[in-house]
Write a structure and sequence with these properties.
Layout lengths: L2 E6 L4 H11 L7 E8 L1 E8 L2 H8 L8 E7 L14 E2 L5 E9 L2 H10 L11 H12 L4 H11 L2 E9 L6 E6 L4 E4 L4 E4 L2 H4 L5 E4 L4 E5 L4 E4 L11 E2 L15 H7 L1 H9 L3 E2 L2 E2 L8 H6 L2 E6 L1 H18 L2 E6 H4 L10 E7 L5 H12 L3 E6 L5 H5 L2 E4 L12 H20 L5 H21 L3 H11 L4 E6 L4 H15 L2 E6 L16 E5 L6 H12 L4 E6 L9 E4 L8 H19 L18
Parallel strand pairs: 17-18, 17-19, 19-20, 20-21, 22-23, 22-24, 24-25, 25-26
Antiparallel strand pairs: 1-4, 1-10, 2-3, 2-4, 5-6, 6-7, 7-8, 8-12, 9-10, 9-11, 11-14, 12-13, 15-16
Helix pairs in contact: 3-4, 4-5, 8-14, 8-15, 10-14, 10-17, 14-15, 15-19, 16-19, 17-19
This protein binds fructose -6-phosphate.
The site of fructose -6-phosphate (F6R) has 15 residues, from α10 and α17.
């Protein structure tokens, strides 16, 4: 949440920072701002998405070779010009940008106001810049004041500060929120992730929690919060930079839906070994695996939906007890965890605060942790004991799509691997399952044949106020995911249920205005789902069925999907529900890649 960026070097800072915050816009887009130093501190900020704000105020008028920038997702204080970052000290000499939350800001603010500081925003961030100013007024240098401030604030923060009186330095800190330095020739870049940096340099330094650094154009000195010097390795990014563009697609979300045959391939490439799966970075030895009595899967949102299916895989394929937990709830229930448990954390961004807290909880209780993460080098990827990278490529659309199917692919492989090692899955069955997986990308392509039908359905139902999604077993989490996608990007209220649960309450909602999307492949529960559909039809609900069954009619609409094994069906059946949400949102003229109130990385609790 919130993207921060900074530059110090020989070039004009504003164009670089503007490009950076645009590339970080997936992290939040309710307001933005840039400040540069060129003898004096100048800044521009405004409310709205970056392109719109830039058109109004022209960020490129800001001059100077050092600057900071921010794109915001509001926590404290509504989206507004005054709450947009950067924030400034009373005398206007110091400017800061911040991503995270200062939890003790209210207490600090009271003390600062008593001391004569004047606050201009409702943000938690502003206390930081006044604290620095206060400590400088007491005789500290900027570095001392910055370091002392970090001891006074609590919470999650990535901060960049600059001081008019020190025009050749940036001050940065990382505590729970991500921050990366990019090391160029006589220039240093700072950003919330490597995405914008990688176009300028392949040398990056991932700051770790508690790191604070004084950065000049050709040097950076990193200390920890106890002010002891620390060395952080330079990571060399791989040469094959992925182009971040929509190509011929109107939205990143649509492009990412269509990328799924390829992203799934990348999730299994190099991980199939005749009759077993293989992994490079799992860091679990055979004895560890044989001892596993229970797997706990956790994540948030779409990643949590993938966990639900992963739980089914692990019980059915590996025959290990599985439990699925919302990461945001996990630590608060003081979970009973033991050394024979394994925690698997799913995350696209690798920086979701609740998922990080779940890992910390498990680690404190001595449990091994595995991360299934998309973003390489992200905080979760670095804190788990082992993991599987999804290699889905950058997911820019705020609504997650390709990561969901890549997560399922990785979980399927992992379940095969665990099942083979603990002796619960035969060679023959594993071979057959791996073969099915290799054929899956072509099956995904077949789902795209239904796109014209899906567009027609979207056109017919886009004015609906509510929608219900039903599915059973492996397709119940797909129902949840379909409802989430629709809510997120079209703002239609939608709920997902196990189809048989409908009669226990939600059936009261059904009338002729209620579209009910039923995920109903011909699996072992097919006839039961058909009965659930009849219950909807008898109450005049409109039934849209996603099915493999060629012969069925009597529904209001049918979306055909190809036949695959039951295990792989959710990877197929989710594609039409992603597309349906997309085309409904398009009919409603919604901002599909930047839905209101959302941000792609949720780095606050
Ligand atoms: C939904 C969506 C969110 C994320 C959730 C977890 O489309 O994108 O629900 O799935 O915020 O994020 P990650 O996977 O980055 O931990």
């Amino acid at each position: 949440m919130c993207g921060i960026a900074a530059y110090i070097g020989q070039k004009e800072a504003a164009p670089i920072i503007l490009d950076f915050i645009k590339k970080l816009e997936y992290r939040g887009y309710d307001s933005c701002g840039i400040a540069t130093l060129n003898g004096s501190l100048t800044y521009k900020k405004g409310t709205g998405k970056i392109d719109d704000v830039d058109q109004k105020i022209n960020f490129l008028n800001l001059k100077g070779n050092i600057g900071i920038g921010h794109t915001r997702w509001a926590t404290h204080g509504e989206p507004s010009d005054k709450n947009a970052h950067p924030h400034f000290s009373c005398e206007g000499n110091i400017a800061i940008v911040h991503n995270g939350i200062i939890e003790n800001s209210e207490e600090l603010k009271k003390i600062l106001i008593k001391g004569g500081h004047e606050f201009r925003s409702e943000t938690d961030t502003e206390v930081v810049v006044h604290l620095i100013e206060d400590l400088i007024n007491e005789g500290n240098t900027m570095e001392e004041a910055f370091a002392k401030t970090l001891k006074l604030i609590q919470g999650a923060f990535a901060i960049v500060a600059m001081n008019k009186n020190e025009p050749n330095r940036l001050y940065v800190v990382k505590q729970s929120s991500p921050l990366v330095l990019g090391v160029g020739d006589n220039e240093i870049f700072v950003a919330s992730d490597v995405l914008p940096i990688q176009l300028h340099t392949n040398k990056v330094v991932y700051l770790q929690d508690g790191d604070f650094a004084v950065v000049t154009n050709n040097d950076y000195k990193i200390k920890n919060l106890s002010e002891i010097k620390v060395n952080r390795e330079i990571t060399i990014l791989s040469e094959n930079l992925e182009e971040i563009s929509k190509g011929d697609f109107e939205h990143f979300m649509l492009k990412e839906i269509y990328e799924q045959p390829e992203s799934i391939k990348r999730a299994f490439k190099g991980r199939i070994d005749k009759d077993n799966a293989k992994f490079g970075g799992l860091n679990l030895n055979i004895d560890d695996i044989k001892k596993i009595k229970r797997v706990v899967l956790t994540g948030c949102g779409t990643s949590w939906h993938a966990c639900l299916i992963g739980g089914y895989y692990i019980e059915e394929i590996s025959k290990i007890a599985a439990q699925v937990e919302y990461a945001s709830e996990f630590r608060y229930k003081n979970p009973v965890l033991g050394k024979d448990d394994l925690l698997i954390v799913l995350s696209q961004s690798g920086e979701t605060a609740d998922s990080i807290a779940a890992i910390q909880e498990a680690k404190e209780k001595g449990v091994k942790t595995i991360g299934l993460v998309n973003v390489v080098g992200s905080p979760i990827a670095r804190m788990v004991d082992g993991g599987i990278y999804l290699h889905a490529g950058h997911e820019i659309g705020v609504a997650s799509t390709k990561t969901f199917t890549s997560h399922l692919t990785a979980l399927y492989l992992l379940s095969i691997y665990l099942g083979r090692i603990n002796g619960n899955l035969s060679k023959e069955k594993a071979k057959e399952m791996l073969n099915d997986l290799e054929n899956l990308p072509d099956k995904i392509k077949e789902t795209f044949n239904s796109v014209e039908e899906i567009k027609k359905i979207a056109n017919k139902y886009f004015k609906s106020k509510n929608a219900l999604y039903l599915g059973r077993h492996y397709n119940f989490p797909v129902a949840l995911e379909g409802a989430l996608k629709l809510k997120e990007i079209s703002y239609i209220h939608a709920e997902g249920y196990p189809a048989a649960e409908m009669k226990h309450g939600p059936i009261a909602l059904i009338d002729e205005n209620m579209p009910v999307i039923v995920i109903a492949p011909e699996d072992r529960l097919y006839s039961k789902v058909m009965s659930n559909i009849q219950e909807v039809k008898s109450r005049k609900g409109k039934v849209i069925v996603v099915t493999t069954d060629e012969s069925k009619n009597g529904f209001d609409e049918i979306i055909k999907i190809p036949k695959v094994s039951e295990f792989l069906m959710p990877i197929i059946s989710v594609v039409p529900v992603q597309l349906l949400a997309y085309y409904i949102a398009k009919e409603r003229n919604c901002d599909i890649d930047k839905p209101r109130n959302l941000a792609k990385s949720v780095t606050v609790e």
